[in-house]
Amino acid sequence: MKILVINAGSSSLKYQLINMQDESVILKGVCERITFTGGQLTQKTFDGRECIIKQDMPTHKEAMEIVLKAMLDKEKGALASIDEISAVGHRVLHSGEDFHSSVVIDDEVIRICEKNAELGPLHMPGNIACIKSCREVMKGVPMVAVFDTTFHSTMPAKAYMYGIPYSVYEQYKIRKYGFHGTSHKFVSEETIKLLGSKDSKIVICHLGNGSSISAVKDGKCQDTSMGFTPLEGLVMGTRSGDIDPAAVEYMRAKLGLTAEQVVDYLNKKCGILGVSELSSDLRDLTAAAKDGNEKAKLALEMLAYRVKKYVGSYIAVLGGVDAVVFTGGIGEHSPLVRGLVMQDMEYCGAKFDDKKNQDYDSGIGYLNADDSKVKIIVLPTNEELSIARETKNLTANI
Questions:
Q1: pTM metric for this prediction
Q2: Residue 90: CA atoms inside 13 Å, Cβ hemisphere, count?
């Protein structure tokens, strides 16, 4: 069974073709500058063959036609026929309150996604346009929507509600939704396998340019740090994270921005980029901090402090913890951040071994001391595989 996984944005389309027999990646690629001039597809197969197609892609339909052309290329592709693709899994940003799990796509699912597009105006139009295009150029192939929010749909109301009038929530669906759900789902499932029991309390730290933390009990999300949008929560690469709304209005007025402009500012000009006034790349900040740059050092300390604060609060929510797991670009590659987060956490039974932390290179790694009651794990995420597994489960009998 071969499954095509698609992650489409407004002007890009990333894809992977996965062999579900052994869960290996057959090929992967990306289309860039969709709707703009100068479009390009870049594709690589598992054995290193590369295919580059430079061609304008006015819509996602043309992009999908080029994707199929590249996959079928006799020399640089990996398929003899489109019939080899058993199903397509689409990453879709927002489920609203309408879906609590992945779903097989039909006209009604698309209609509901279009209704919820206002909850994710930057990503949902591209998601929907690509789904429609795929259905048009791959007629008869089953397709599944895997939402970035549904893993968090098990949160209780006390966790997802804001302190606003209930009637406003009911009318406009303003609440915490959470994001990075495919990653949190994959990591929680793999951690449960490592622990050997679904009866578990896990805190997952997905740390990258965008970061989020989730509290997972017995495989179900109890709380997560991102909110109505991905802006809430941790200090991130360019996002401010938690901030007093009154401070936002004060800053808006002082900077002479509109409401839309200040939200864009908080998303793109703040976070560790804003504090350091140097870079949103953790590698740049780490090097600068070593050279004595105080603002870079402060940005790193703020990032780790906010993570530590959420980890502690989620241990309280769960009533204890069996494992703290790091994943994502920073979670997997920054021993500095992992060390700052896990420093002085013995009170909850988590004994950190910094030598293991510094020595970690790749794969699944245990960073806890041998006598630690709590497992401290680095576990690389695989969102594409998570989407492929969901797609397989829903289409196996179609």
A1: 0.95
A2: 32
